[in-house]
Amino acid sequence: MPTRPIICLPDPRLKLVSEPVAQVDDEVRALLDAMLETMYDAPGVGLAAIQIAVPRRVVVIDVAGKDDPPAPLFLVNPEITWASEELNVHEEGCLSIPDYYEDVTRPARVRARFLDRDGQQREIEADGLLATCIQHEIDHLNGVLFIDHLSRLKRERAIKKFQKAAAKRAEEGM
Ligand code: GNR
Ligand code: NI
Known about the structure:
The protein is α+β, with helices and mostly antiparallel strands. The protein has one domain: Peptide deformylase (Peptide Deformylase). The chain contains 3 helices and 7 strands; from the N terminus they run H-E-E-E-E-E-E-E-H-H. The chain has helices spanning 26-41, 128-141, 152-173, and strands at 46-48, 58-61, 73-83, 87-94, 97-107, 110-115, 121-126. It has a 5-stranded antiparallel β-sheet with strand order 1-2-3-6-7. A two-stranded antiparallel ribbon has the order 4-5. It is globular. The mean pLDDT is 97. It binds ligand GNR and nickel (II) ion. Nickel (II) ion (NI) is lined by residues 94-96, 136, 140.
């Protein structure tokens, strides 16, 4: 299956609130499979559908180490049902914000409810990188990027850098 282009800052579609999926059918499974391949190819540990310009509440995650077997998670309409009061700081990056990394503070542990690849409702509890990743991906479904959790100064610096790069590309394209 071919990979799909990943959209990047400052693409305004990254701010869209994605629509829930009514039914996990073959079309949604095809989307999940295309997303997984795109994520592995990138490579990344998570991908939300909006990152390939599809505004639907669909996420893939695989936080397995590179020497471990693949462990893909398919999350349709995921929702956080519980978050710990304890917080955790993790350095984050985003395939839609290339080569930019910053520490982000989020709840250390979360529970999330979602539909799996077969449309079955499930709930998982996560900590560590998986907890961070679930929150990062659900943010994408709500048009929120990890830089939105940073100070205004840091966020605006990051956005400016990508706006400049986009302007330069446009100029060179003329
Ligand atoms: O590949 C990714 N790595 C990552 C590292 C720390 C916290 C979150 C992430 S998700 C990111 C892929 C991505 O952009 N998902 O939306
Ligand atoms: Ni991301």
